[in-house]
Write a structure and sequence with these properties.
With 315 residues, this protein is mainly beta. It has helices spanning 40-43, 51-58, 76-84, 112-125, 143-146, 228-233, and strands spanning 2-7, 23-27, 30-33, 37-39, 44-48, 61-64, 71-75, 93-98, 100-105, 133-140, 152-156, 164-174, 177-196, 211-217, 235-236, 251-252, 255-257, 262-268, 273-280, 284-285, 289-294, 300-307, 310-313. It has 4 domains: 2-105, eubacterium ventriosum atcc fold; 112-189, no CATH class; 191-251, Type Iii Antifreeze Protein Isoform Hplc 12; 255-313, SH3 type barrels, CATH 2.30.30. The chain is built from 6 helices and 23 strands. The model is unreliable at 6-21 (pLDDT under 50).
Length: 315
């Protein structure tokens, strides 16, 4: 036997976002949900003259789903109580509820598209510089992997940045038991690189006219292309010829701080920058984290060397 309910607001004024047209909701005795929440539209047939009304009702959240591949059972009373918290949306709506409702969460399967997205997340997290671009292609799964019905899976991040044809470890949770597989993908990297237009002598700085910035594939480089800030502040370690792609190994580190010398301490951001003086407690190069004694507070603070005699600190 089914229960027929007519949910009416005691207040005669329509609520904002409420369903205003003649509408009916027929909840099925069995249903499947795909996400982590039970949405009314996945377990019921909703009929309305207004597409907006259907959308409002379809997106009503009835609580957590039972979990991948699992089942939960509700009584008509259970569902009625859940609907009562959405009384505004049900003004004048005819709702049919069976005595018992069984809801199952769909089991997942592993697809090449899903695996590619997880690999892209890993590749993105391992980029040496956020300006780098990457391309993941040719994702290959064994047939047995695609046929699995699972409750979840993950791709294990490798210790080193993947490049070229690479095998990724996949752990699939099949019911209660984890299973290990390997999937392959091709990973490429691209970066804006500085290409010299003339010969540069050792121990000299670079000028903007000395180079062109070009997009290059850098997948198999053993070194990292120099960034614009590194080029702007660095010195050539050796004589470099025209056509050379500038890499980090082409630069010599310039001593920017010496123990005991007075330095500028900068704190804040572009909107509010506070400058004080301090005494360096060690030798350091640009980019190093150092300890400096603040002359204003007489305390030792940590900071990053950003230029000759300049340290950015956080108090």
């Amino acid at each position: 036997m089914k229960i027929l309910l007519m949910l009416l607001l005691m207040n005669s004024l329509p609520a904002m976002g409420s369903v205003k047209s003649t509408t009916s909701v027929h909840i099925h005795s069995t249903g499947e949900v795909s996400g982590h929440r039970i949405l009314l539209g996945e377990i019921a047939s909703i009929s309305s003259l207004s597409p907006r009304s259907e959308k409002i009702l379809s997106e009503i959240d009835l609580g957590e789903s039972p979990g991948d591949g699992k089942v939960v059972q509700f009584t008509a009373s259970d569902i009625s109580q859940k609907l009562q918290s959405h009384v505004d949306e049900f003004k004048g709506v005819q709702v049919t509820i069976p005595e018992s409702i069984i809801i199952r969460q769909r089991e997942k399967s592993i697809t090449a598209t899903g695996v590619k997205e997880k690999i892209e997340d890993i590749v993105r997290s391992l980029l040496p510089d956020p300006t780098w671009e990457y391309e993941v292609s040719e994702v290959t799964l064994a047939q047995v992997v695609e046929s699995l019905k699972i409750t979840g899976y993950q791709i294990i991040a490798p210790l080193n940045r993947p490049k070229g044809n690479f095998s990724f470890e996949l752990i699939a949770q099949e019911h209660a038991a984890p299973r290990r597989f390997w999937v392959t993908a091709k990973v490429k990297y691209f970066a804006r690189t500085a290409i010299l237009t003339r010969q540069i002598a050792a121990h000299t700085r670079f000028q903007p006219s000395d180079l062109n910035w070009e997009r290059k594939e850098v997948t198999y480089l053993l070194d990292i292309p120099a960034t614009k800030s590194e080029v702007a502040t660095g010195l050539a370690k050796m004589t470099l010829m025209p056509g050379t792609m500038l890499l980090r190994s082409h630069f010599e580190r310039e001593m920017a701080l010496k123990f005991g010398e007075e330095v500028d301490l900068l704190a804040g951001d572009e909107q509010l920058l506070v400058a004080t003086k301090g005494i360096a407690q060690q030798n350091a190069f640009i980019g190093d984290t150092v300890k400096v004694k603040s002359l204003a507070t007489n305390k030792i603070v940590d900071g990053v060397v950003t230029g000759r005699g300049v340290v950015n600190v956080r108090y």
